[in-house]
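A favour, since you know our structure tokens better than I do. Would you make up a two-line entry for one protein for me to read? Write everything out right here, beneath this request.
=====
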Amino acid sequence: MTPKTVLSIAGSDSGAGAGIQADLKTFAALGAYGTSVLTAVTAQSTRGVDAVLPLPPQTVRDQMDSVLGDFDVRAVKSGMLGTPAVADAVAEAARAGRLPHLVVDPVLVATSGHRLGVVEAVERLLPYAEVATPNCAEAAALTGGPVGTVEEMVAAAEALAARGPAFVVVTGGDVDADGESVDVLAGGGTTRLLRAPRVDTRHNHGTGCSFSAAVAVRLAAGDAVPVAVAAAKEYVTRALTGARGWELGAGRGPLDHFGWSA
């Protein structure tokens, strides 16, 4: 059977823990055929981001035209956009209906603390998102308020859902809720909490990228958003658990995308 095609529009991580590389691993692990559009090239490892080179908007458009003109893309995930001009190029395609089941991961700050995107760029794309997946720091940057508790996550998810996305998931991996990892899903007239055991590990580089990519795969397969989000959370929990004992790099290591440690 021909696999479903999913597209990632994101930056390159030379250490391969996040960005396009993490997205393609996630697509493959979950049985989808991954295609890619690069928005930027980073010099990056588990220790942090050393340099960022945004690509010209026309180069981003050319890549999208090539992929979308040939493949039957069933879902799209966007990650690091880098500049408002690149975001405009992606928003043009979304506005034209060329980016089905768009999952927007508003990559604003890397795990290392290096700023990879700007709020203005993400805001250009939010109205076209079927699902937006900010972490707490990104939700705080987008709403202008604190997001450090489950209650604040709920408020941020609902506020962002009112700005255009059909659904918003505020991921709470950085919030220790009594030993649980709690994500907040708002949309469709309801707000719900998704809970999983908290995985005690420093190897969490690319968690947000992998989560949003997994959501896109499940949407491509025909899942409703709440089902897709729950499946993605389960996948990331397994991937975090599998990599707990790994020693890849000197900093925050990558996830076990393929279940090698299962």
